[in-house]
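ingest -> fold -> write
write: protein_1
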Amino acid sequence: MTGESLSLKTKVSDSSYCCTQNRLLHLDFPVHVSPKFHQYSLNLAGNYCDIKHGKLTIQKVKEEMDLAKFKPDPERPRIFMSKNGKVVIVFPNGEIVEVANPPDRAKDDSSVGAKNGQLSRAGSLTVLRRTNSKSKLPSTSSSRTSSIAESDSYASVDLGTDKLPPIDTPEASHVCSIRLRNILRRIQNGEVSKEDLHKNLEYAASVLESVYIDETSSVETPTSFPKSPPERLTDEDDELSEVEPDAVPTEVRDWLALTFTRSMSNVRRRGLEKPKFRSVAHAIRAGIMVDRIYRRLSSSATLHIPPAVLQLLKGMDDWSFDVFSLNSAADGHSLKYVGYELLQKYDLVTKYKINSSMLDSFLLQLEVGYSKYKNPYHNLVHGADVAQTVHYILSQSKLAHWLTDLEVFATIIAALIHDYEHTGTTNNFHIQTGSEFAVLYNDKAVLENHHICASFRIMRSEEANILNHLSREEYREFRALVIEMVMATDMSFHFQQLKNMKNLLGMPENIDKQKALSLVLHCADISHPAKDWNLHRRWTSQLLEEFFKQGDREQELGLAISPLCDREKTLVAESQIGFIDFIVDPSFAVMTEMLEKILTPLQKAARSEDAISEEVFDKTDKSKYILSTPWSDCLADNKNKWKVQAAKDAEERKQKEAEELSKETSNTNNNTTKPIAPPGGPTPAVSCSAGKGGN
């Protein structure tokens, strides 16, 4: 393989950044392979760095390159690979990056990896640790492997420290962890002497100090073990100045300096200082950050999203998100795109290894079920709207920080499926008519039971099983939470649900997560009166049309017409005022109080530990968490508009009644006036009728 040009694609996770998500990174460059030592020499001649769309790609400048020049060069970074798969990258300045073994290919990744430039998990590299050690690596991988094996064995058997590897070597942290585990086991049996414990803890502390990156100063700790002085991750002289001026666009250079250095002062005037990457490792970290930012801006990695839809999805974090415009731009597939966007925003597709084709099938089947009965209101647009509203509450209130990934996953899915295959009629209608659903679910939460049952049937199917990577315990927890949340959307439980939550708010104990999330979904389900007027007015019109259709069916069946289902007698404005006053406003008030109680302790803990910045929590109030409540203004505004409309409707009804009364009076006068009969003519009809009535 000597002299051959290869193309490597790697996946890197850098723990130096506060992100637990693995990010894709493409590196394409010629590689020289030395089969004798399994040594890879990265030839960087004739290449340049270009950052675009979150991918750092080392591209060739020359179309034709002399492969004979690709010989091992001590001035170039080298990759040492042992037979057991351990990989260590050594840079000319002595920096060492140790990477883990590539994980096995997931069963379902074959289809995912081939789409949209995404890589499968096979062949990925994970950075374990890096060091600035100047020590040289052994010339062969076999000697390195044997030394690591000897250190591992020594660490797990003996408690001495004389044969442990130097603290600034890549294997030191691994051997240290084995030694500490060995000590823990011996402590339980009382087999560790104070002297051995002291020496090993001192060694472990020295290893941690060598790994730790001191951002301000170097403080030497007395120790019997040699260690190199700590260095800053970003040295003051490491200003990316080695990159050629034409290698990276000036805008990208300035952005890198602004993003990856400490202050605005690091952005030099163009032409004075040229940015540089001291090593490929720095370039890798930059690529990871670029990719992370790009993924936050757009999550169209594995699903083609039309540009118009993508533009509208940027408003997902707005309270009054216009889901109707999205549905029009998406050609009637708003639920599909909203569902996919939310699962990507919370990185659930990656965390739970959801196959893209299965996810697409699941969302499409949801849309088919929502459209089954052609409901004016309980359709896929309503499902998308509720899911987006739930997302707003989770993200803008920071409630998501209180939840586990699995709880966020269950919440998003519950919102998406909460009205799946809704029949466009109420539970009471099913009970009164003795429908198949009512018989099946014993007249108890008929529709809610069906939404859950039918949705889980989809998720159990082979082509739409988005839960196939959950463990048994995770699946049980996921299913229990989804059931609890969807069942709580039954309006017959409304007042009991609010009462239970008020009781919990009056107690010092923590609030149960299932009950909290159930209230969030319930509020999102009835939230349209708390949105902007144009959205609320349209939702009201569609909901009443669905009610009126049920009233028509009830009239045909000879049943009593349900409240708000009579086309002729329903007072629209008055009904919405009552709905806001007695249902929506109290629900959102309780939810607001609940969120404040949940998040206030989290805010205090974050401040005391200085773990969360002002970007996460508003620090204007030092004692209580302040929740942004855009729904309050919308509710008040909509209520006032309905009052104005109610006054107009009342005036119109009054005028209409006056006109009808006037017509009736006119008709009565005409009927009671006696016509003049000609002499010898017949008796008037009125007199004749009166006479018959008298008989």
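write: protein_2
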Amino acid sequence: MTVLERDSHCKGHQEIQSRTRRNHHSNQNMAWGTELWDQFDNIALHTQKGLDFLDKYGRLIRDRSDVENRYAADLRSLVKKYQLKKKDDDMQFTSHSAYRAMLAEVGDLAGQHEVVAEQLAASVVSDVTATARTLKDERKRLLHEATRLQNQLNNQRQQLEKAKKNYEKSAREAEKALENYHKADADLNLSRAEVEKQKMNSSLRDQQCEDNKNEYANQLQKTNDLQHEHYARLLPAIYDELQALDERRARCQQDHLRRAVDIERHVFPIIHTCLDGMVRAADTIDAEKDSQLVIERYKSGFEPPDSIPFEDLSSARNGEAPPAGSATMVHSSPAIADSPRGLTIKGTLSAAKFKKRGGIFGIFSGSKNSSPNASFESFMKEDLDSLPPNQRRKRIRQKLDDLTSKINQETATRDGLMKMKGVYESNPALGDPMTIESQLRENTQRLEKLRLELHKYQRLQDTNGQRCSLSEPEGNLSRSTSDSSVNQLGGAPAPAAPAAAAAAAGAGHSATLPSHISSNSPESGLGSTSHASLPGSDSDVDDSRAANGAPPVTDGGDDSELAFVDDPLPVIASASALYPFDASSEGSIPMQEGERLLVIELDQGDGWTRVRRHDSLEEGFVPTAYLQVHSER
């Protein structure tokens, strides 16, 4: 080794030792660029493993999201599978209500798991995938740059090695040429020319050795400078960027771990609310109340049967008369025989032995819609005939609620039609008011039919569901018939109305529609007694007055009937007309806008109010929507 080589080697070794000492005394600023300057392959392997681990974590969160979705779907399938039917009669029990509430909370719980799955997929999986892709691209770029720098340094080292070999070769040749010159100069047999030739060859070889020496020194300087730049600045910078990349990967995993936990923690209060809802549903279960509901549902209202008397057959065998008080029929129980429904009682042990019979294969049975009483008769035959008293009353109440709801709907429809008609009358450009007349007539007919049925079911409820003749409800609905059936002023019975007598004699099972119930609306043109079709109306007042010995009130009927005292109705409130109204049918009175009127009968749900003028006893019906009631008295 030459002196120059020893000097450069010692200089590089001293720099490495000094850098090692500096790094040893500054452990707090340890970095990959200084500490791992010669660990390129290990750094590349470590960063690759880190990115693979980040991909693995992303796949874990994606699979976790799929698990949450499948769990939520399974919960919803359970809720759908075990959901109770909407028409289930057992929904009145608190245990069934609590069960439905629990299923609803389970459905909400499934929704929270769907939220967790959605947020994990949107917030964690997508970010992890994007971050891993970015880090992979950056790592590839840095490793490519480090490889380029390393190749550059290796090329420089190869050039240095080549220059060194040339220098060594030229040095050997120069030394040999010098040795040949000295031999030729010492040999006396050689000519002067030969000696000069060896001298010039030696000088040439010395010059080539000097040139190669300078080239070697130049390449060595370049190599040292490049190597110093490579290990002191270029490669540490790349390693530091790789270190920052790996730290970003670790921090990304840390942040997404926390984010996944925060996503689940965010839905925990709602999950706790669902669980609390299940607990509240369990607290609503009332065993005693359910037991009472069972009693209310299945109670027949009958008394238990008495003891079966002993039947002595010896007297009949001996030809003697049976003793007094002995029973001859053991199969007729007093409780069943005295029941208002006969032998077929739904809900009893003997109910399965009896079946309804409607003629011979139903040939002579009429259609359900053949008469206005078809639905009522169908209800009486199919729904009430086989029910015990308690269940019969319950069924009648349900029917009354259903009819009341339908009447309210039809009334709301009629109010809308009346308002539309008023708008058309005030502004003919919007439409023809006569187009609403047919709809109003149909609506009025439906209302009349519903009110008639409502009154029949109310009478049926008043009689505790006992079956009565078809002509009886309608005869009682008639004001003249009810008035004639009570005692008059002196308490003497009044003769029956001719129309009621004819209906009872010739109608059979088909009842005639009473005159004052055929239309509840003054617009029908059949009178102004629509209030008599509802309970608590004038017919009930007349019945109570007749029962107390007072003369009943009449609307005016046939001239052949007795005259009754007309007692005016009391004033309920005062009102003023919002719009003008032209009376176009019997029973209604006209009014002007702003006119003051006295209210003597409130709207019974048909959209008409009965009023009286201030200055006279003229009475009649006006649309309720055209009035503004100021005060009640």
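write: annotation protein_2
Strands lie at 573-577, 596-601, 608-613, 619-623, 627-632.
The CA atoms of residues 5 and 220 lie 9 Å apart.
pipeline exit 0
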